[in-house]
Amino acid sequence: xxxxxxxxxxxxxxxxxxxxxxxxxxxxxxxxxxxxxxxxxxxxxxxxxxxxxxxxxxxxxxxxxxxxxxxxxxxxxxxxxxxxxxxxxxxxxxxxxxxxxxxxxxxxxxxxxxxxxxxxxxxxxxxxxxxxxxxxxxxxxxxxxxxxxxxxxxxxxxxxxxxxxxxxxxxxxxxxxxxxxxxxxxxxxxxxxxxxxxxxxxxxxxxxxxxxxxxxxxxxxxxxxxxxxxxxxxxxxxxxxxxxxxxxxxxxxxxxxxxxxxxxxxxxxxxxxxxxxxxxxxxxxxxxxxxxxxxxxxxxxxxxxxxxxxxxxxxxxxxxxxxxxxxxxxxxxxxxxxxx
Length: 340
Description:
Layout: E1 18-19, H1 31-38, H2 53-63, E2 70-73, H3 75-86, E3 91-93, H4 101-108, E4 112-114, E5 128-133, H5 145-154, E6 159-163, E7 186-191, H6 192-195, E8 204-207, H7 210-219, H8 227-238, H9 247-262, E9 267-269, E10 276-281, H10 286-297, E11 299-300, E12 302-303, E13 314-318, H11 322-339
Parallel strand pairs: 1-11, 3-4, 3-5, 5-6, 6-7
Antiparallel strand pairs: 2-8, 7-8, 9-10, 10-13, 12-13
């Protein structure tokens, strides 16, 4: 679903003034990184490492695990497709709604997919993969760490792919790779693109048992992670860069936005534990709302109708500043008044 993600501002020819469609924090101060990378531009005249071994060592040291448990990828998306390829022809259980790339990747590699939460454990064969997004996109809900730990440990006959790309956007505790080194059925996905607010550099990694990580290495293409991304990753991790300076304030404002939108006639927002949230508008399709907000306010929201299980009244927004959020609230209120 290459054109089905958020942040499609490129479609609107400079009309977007406030972008609520991307979940990534948009006010990170990347000036130090930009200065550093500008001093490293000569590296683009040479090939990067076929595998980002130096960066993997830096990550492993930070996580307090062995480097053979870490595989750096070109964003979490590359890891998703590699895992789907490794387990081709398996059964995949993908609770919905969630990130579409899991099912897209599984379909390419001939997985039989179940989209429901209440699968009968007795009916499906054991060669199955569970894809779990935590915090979940697009809902923003978070599964309890203790519950996740218990399920994974008590079902070691199955493979669990735990995508924690948005772990830096919630106050809830996440599973740490160092806690799970005795679980050989778990792969944890981490997005440095989201953690450090650098989606244009496409950088992530997967952690798991050395055997599975080695099998993933055998099927991946060389040089998928470019030299500047590798340099950026090492710089940010070594300097303990904090892209979101005050997560609590961001989440407090997110809950205010959620509450104020819920007060609007015909709008219902799901309870979220992140900076982004899923909503529903009764009086209109999301596409009409989206186009109207662009034309009249320069506001971009995420049309969530292409998430499996959601209809054309669903949308997703991520909290911005208080002032920008107030504009969004007023704009949707204005639109609803026109629907009547």
